[in-house]
Amino acid sequence: MPDLSEEDIQAVVQVLRTPQLSLGPKLREFEQKFAAFVGTKEAVAVNSGTSALHLVMRGLQIRDGDEVITTPFSFIASANCILFERAKPVFVDILPSTMCIDPAKVSAAITPRTKAILAVDVFGYLADWKALRAIADKHHLLLIEDSCEAMGSERAGKRAGSFADCAVFGFYPNKQMTTGEGGMLVTDRPELAKMARSLRNQGRDDADAFLIHHRLGFNYRISDINCALGISQLKKLPEMISRRAQVARWYREGLADVPEDVHVPADQEEVNISWFVYVIRLADRYNARDRDALKQHLRDHGIGCNAYFPCIHLQPFYREAFGFKEGDFPVTEHIAERTLALPFSSRMSEKDVAKVCETLKDGLLYLPS
Length: 369
Ligand SMILES: *Cc1c(COP(=O)(O)O)cnc(C)c1O
Known about the structure:
Elements: H1 6-16, H2 25-38, E1 42-46, H3 49-59, E2 67-70, H4 77-84, E3 88-91, H5 103-108, E4 114-120, H6 129-139, E5 142-146, E6 154-155, E7 158-159, E8 166-170, E9 183-187, H7 190-200, H8 224-235, H9 237-254, E10 262-263, E11 271-272, E12 278-282, H10 288-300, H11 316-322, H12 330-336, E13 339-342, H13 350-364
Parallel strand pairs: 2-3, 2-4, 4-5, 5-8
Antiparallel strand pairs: 1-9, 6-7, 6-11, 8-9, 10-12, 12-13
Helix pairs in contact: 1-8, 2-8, 3-4, 3-7, 9-13, 10-13
Bound molecules: pyridoxal-5'-phosphate.
Pyridoxal-5'-phosphate (PLP) is lined by residues 48-50, 74-75, 77-78, 120, 146, 148-149, 170, 172, 183.
C-alpha cells in the first residue's frame, strides 16, 4: 500500500500546471537527489525497475552466448532481463540466512562464458557484497545489484545500490517509495549512465535533434509527473522506513509466542534493514500444502497475503524453455514452499498487526501438528 500525503499530491499537481511533462526539470532533480541519497555519481530514471534492468544488460553489452549468474529466489524480472538480450541466466542457490545468492555457489558456477553476476537484495537484506566483489574482481566479471527491494538498507554507512558496478531500483506502489510506476539505474560509471540515457530515449544522444537516432533504443522514459512524486517521496523516505521498522517490530512481538511454528524475519548483522515486505517462514516440519492452507485461512478472514517468492526456475516458461524441475535448487525450494508475505505498509497500526497475528495463530490450529 502506498503512503501518499497531501504534499505528494500537491507536488504532482504542480507539474500539471507546467508545460514540461517529460524530459523536464523534475527528471533532473529526481535523478540528482536520488544519486545523492544512494551515494552514486549517476542516476538515470526510467519507467520501471524492469526497464532499468534491461538497460543495464544492454548498456553493459551482455548478449548472445554470455552467461549471467543469478538467483532463482527473486521477482521474475531479475532473470528475465538476461533473456531479453538472449544471454543465459545461470541460477545458483541461496543462503538460508538472508535468502540472497550464496557466494560459494557463485564461484562454482563460473565458466569461460560468464560475463556478470546479478545479485538481489532480497526483502531488504543485503547480499554478501564483499564476497561477491572479491569473486567478480578475481574473474573479471561485471557485478550488478538488483536493489529494488532494499531502498534505504545500509551497511557501515553504505546504502543499497552502491555496492556493485551498477544497480537498479523500482518504484511500483508496494515498494518503500513509489512513483506509481518507475525505476532507476544508478552507477559510478558515467559512460554507462550516458548510454542508458540514450537507450531510454529511442537511441537519441543528448545534444541531438529530436529525430536523430544513433542506436536502437527504447521508450523507457518516465514522466515529470512521476518524478515529482519521486522527489516528494524521497524526502519522507527515512520516516516511511522507520514506520515500516515499527510495523516489523509489532509483528515480531505479536508472533513471539509461536516460535516452534513461525520463524519471523531475523535481523542481519551490521545491516540497517529497510523492510520491503514482511515474510514469515513456517517451521521445517510443515510443507507447501500447510502454507497454502494458512494462506487461505488468512484470505478467508479478509487478510491479503501471498506465497512469496515462487521459485523463478519453476515458473511455467522457465521449465519449458530450460527443463528446470523440482530439486534443482533445494535451499530456494525449501524456503519458497514455506514463506508467506503478510500485509505490510508504513500505514499499518499496531491494531492492524495484532489482527493479522491473531488470525494467523488461529490458522495454525488447523494445521497438522
Ligand atoms: C520490484 C522489483 C523489480 C522491478 O519491478 P518493476 O515492477 O518493473 O518496477 C525488480 N526486481 C525485484 C527483485 C523487484 O522486487
